[in-house]
Amino acid sequence: MDPNRLSQALSLLGVALYAHFLWFRPSQEGIALALGLALGGASLAYGERPFPVPFFLVLFALLLALQLYFGYPLFFLLGGLLGVGLPYLAYRLRKPAK
């Protein structure tokens, strides 16, 4: 799978999970996980090489600071790790271009 498309899909999944955990099944842990997933997936863009997107990295850092002070930082970090790690793993495991 293309890492860029996987990253976009995980970001959209994070937004959908945020809406789900906000309106249908209220859960602070789920909201933290969803926000981490959405921002983690958007924090790296994939071209020839992965490169960071500063806006989403700053937003991720601000929300992490808020989660450390008020909320559930482990769920937020788990979502961020999945959002960054899965597309990066797909990037590293893809076959090189010939």
Ends: how far apart? 17 Å
Give the overall shape.
Answer: globular
β-sheet strand percentage? 5-15%
Total strand segments: 2
Q: Strand order of the main beta sheet, please?
A: 1-2
Query: What is the H/E order?
Result: HHEEHH
What is the alpha-carbon Rg in Å? Answer: 14 Å
Number of helices: 4
Major beta sheet summary:
2 strands, antiparallel
Q: How many domain regions? A: 1
By secondary-structure content and strand pairing, the structural class works out as: mainly alpha
| Mean of pLDDT | 93
Low-confidence stretches: none
Condensed summary:
This protein has 98 residues and is mostly helical.
Question: How would you describe this protein?
Answer:
The mean pLDDT is about 95. Helix 2 (about 30-40) runs antiparallel to helix 3 (about 55-70), helix 2 (about 30-40) packs parallel to helix 4 (about 75-95) and helix 3 packs antiparallel against helix 4. The protein has helices at about 5-25, 30-40, 55-70, 75-95, and strands at about 45, 50. Strand 1 (about 45) and strand 2 form a beta hairpin. It has one domain (about 5-95). The protein contains 4 helices and 2 strands. It has a two-stranded antiparallel ribbon.
Topology:
Elements: H1 3-24, H2 28-42, E1 44-46, E2 50-52, H3 54-70, H4 73-93
Antiparallel strand pairs: 1-2
Helix pairs in contact: 1-2, 1-4, 2-3, 2-4, 3-4
